[in-house]
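Notebook entry, structure prediction.
Reason for the run: the old model in the group folder had no record of what sequence produced it. Starting over properly, with the input documented here first.
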Amino acid sequence: MNRLRWAVADGWTVTQRDLLHWVRQPAPVVVGLLMPIMMVLMFGFLFGGAISVPGGGDYREFLLPGMFAMTVAFGVEGTMLAVTTDASRGITDRFRSMPMAPSAVVVGRSGADMLNSMLALLVMVACGLLVGWRWHGSAGAALTAFVLLLLLRFALLWVGIYLGLVFANPGAVMAVQILVWPIGFLSNVFVAPETMPGWLGTIASWNPLSSTVTATRELFGNPGWGGGSWIAQHAMLMAVLWPLVILAVFFPLSVRAFRRMSR
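New structure, fully documented this time:
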């Protein structure tokens, strides 16, 4: 119990260090918050008039739950960049030389990123309310939707931590960004998978992002299309199962990668 207490204390210290960096250098955080807002305005007002929602409904109400999920998904490269920057500057090596819990570096990073994700979701909710988005379900259902979004973010940040530890070079983040954008767009965030070619629609339906988006639309009471596939009919289950699978794979990989850096 004493070791656990010190591990939590060391992890919180590293989290505070990352938060202080954001306070002193707020530009990357501000840019990261502005990007999804620009996408909401672009798709909601420029392209939204040309897209009809099956069964009727306002396109911006359909769009916002998807943009919430895109916001948490696009944080992967931010996590990776922070980890690779610390590794390339020797900061990670300095942490390893200190009398601190070995888990504090990755736990502190995850804690800081989760706080950043909560802030990003608050900003997106405020933006959504300004452009006309509303939730029509109960407060408990809305809270469940936000929990599912943060669960997906928690799972994906370990993907970023693992990639940052393996590719200890800030230049590798560009390659990840090239991959994250197509994966994010290849989902049901903007259009129905049924409108895509058959094989492409199947890939989009099985995208973990699509399950979270479908589940949150249902919980918020926003318009959406469920589809007739098994994955679409069990979106609520898969919105929990997908993050757990991702976490089960990348958490131990991250721990192993960090231990290998210590050798």
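Summary: The radius of gyration is 19 Å.
The old model has been moved to the deprecated folder.
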